[in-house]
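User: For documentation purposes, I need each entry recorded in a consistent format: the amino acid sequence on its own, followed directly by the corresponding structure tokens. There are two entries in this batch. Please keep commentary to a minimum and don't merge the entries.

Assistant: Recorded as requested. Entry 1:
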Amino acid sequence: MSVQAPPAPTVLAKTPSRWERANKATLAMLGVTVALFVGFGIGADNFLSFDNMSNLATQVAITLIVAVAMTFVITTGQIDLSVGSTVAFVAVGTAEMLKAGWDSSIVIVAALAAGLFWGAVNGWLAAYQKIPPFIVTLATMSVIRGLAQLWTKGFSVPIDRRLYVAKIGEAKFLGFSALAWIALATVVIGGILLARTRFGNYVNGIGSQEESVRRAGVNTARIKMITLMLAGLAAGVAGLLTAARLGSGSANSGQGFELTVIAAVVLGGTDLFGGRGTMIGSIIGAVITGVIANGLTLLGVSPFLTPIVTGLVLLAAIWLNLRGRTLSELGAKLLGRT
């Protein structure tokens, strides 16, 4: 009579806790944000006033609009260095078209189309011609701003404050500017696209395992091109709003803007090498860059110090990003051996 061996015990996979699933970089930057608010709130009496918070929301708005689109770009493992130049080009184009007597509605459509066009150029060259996005956008950054400078001969083009486009820059609702509300709507749309749609899943998948996504039948080149087009469109919106807010279009607008946007996205916890994007993190990152500039100004610190501080913070964020990846890989290897 044979004796049957007892069945092997069933091993249940451990469900990762909420803390294990959380983006540690985003949580760390949330802590930094709170610390900055507390620090500047103590150092500057009017920092936490409603008027300054409203002003801060307006200052952050344009950065946040482009940061939403840049989150998609960086999550796919790409980068766009031309957004600052696109802002300048669209701002100049908006002012020139209004000066020529074009209707505001047509100008708005043309401005957004211009941004979308430059995004499509970047996307086609990077996704379909296989030129590294860093090289493509570095080149178009120079070309686009050069065209804006050639168009205006280096002069600023004023906008009649009575026109509808100009009034967008002055409009307020519930104490906050129209720019802040547009930025909020952009964040909501971007968050839904990234977290709740098939497109967002493709974006995350391409950044982490592009070949696997491609073998699943997804046109990865088209997805990558669309993300760069979104960045161009967002830069077009930013250029239009910049002209509306300042009441003029200048080829010098957006100098160093790409650094601020990339800093905001990476600071928030989006992986610089792709595969992990967080819209909440991009909001936090944009707020951090805005708070640094706003707080230092209220403290009477030289404005020339702001880009230095922003650059140092970005460097620290990239270092933490790399360290986090290294520690995660090490932890995975150790768990794999046990």
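Entry 2:
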Amino acid sequence: MFRSSLVALLLAGLSAHAWAAAPAASAAIATGLIAHRAVYDLELKDASDRSGIASMYGRMVYEFDGSYCQGFTTNFRFVTQIDTGDSVRVSDQQTKTFENLKDRKFTFDTKSFTDDQLDKEVNGAAENQANGVKVDLKQPASRELQLGESRFPTEHMLDVIQNAKEGKRFFEARVFDGSDDGDKSLVTTTIVGKQETPAAEEADAGNAGAFSKTAFWPVTIAYFNENAKSDSLPVYRMSFKLYENGITRDLTMDYGDFVLTGKLAKLELLDHKAEVCK
């Protein structure tokens, strides 16, 4: 349901070829990412009659750790209580990913539960090769796939930050994050606003701790099916405020039929020892 592009966050300006040509610059940007655990309170902002949702709220926990040398691990949990008017159910999505930026490899494992019952598990591994992304999918069915060249979530986050720092306000990318059934990439368009300083009335700015007064970029990423027509609506759209270190807050997640907001409730910085790549 929720994409890992916070992460996940997904090339004109810095293409995959440019990444391969400038590993030192990429490594430098990656070392600026901070290991952290962020907790977000979720609320329903809007829902159409077609959604069948009367009310919805929940909590999201996002944990990011690692380094350019060791690789980056993301643990993510997204729990919501959904009231349809006739019944109430609890949805629980648990995702763990590992991304090796140097070798451009990515592993993913997502379990989705409804009322504590496992609905679906999706897991596998992907690698960016010369002719595109090779996916070795284990669940929900064992198979190998060949997809077009794509960015992985942390790569895409770094692309967003790099473009923001260079003042490039719009760019596109194909992104693979292992979501849904783990068998496709999505085309993304990213819009980056001018850097701003948090306003006093922003409710969750104070929960950013040491970064409560640090400048951020407003970012919106829209995700489209790969073969969608040029005038098609996105399958998902996410807006958030992004700090240079990879921390995000003030989320808006638009699924078309309903919209959720996510306010930063707690931010914890994690201890991580720096290292020199061998």
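Summary note for entry 2:
Confidence is low (pLDDT under 50) at residues 1-25.
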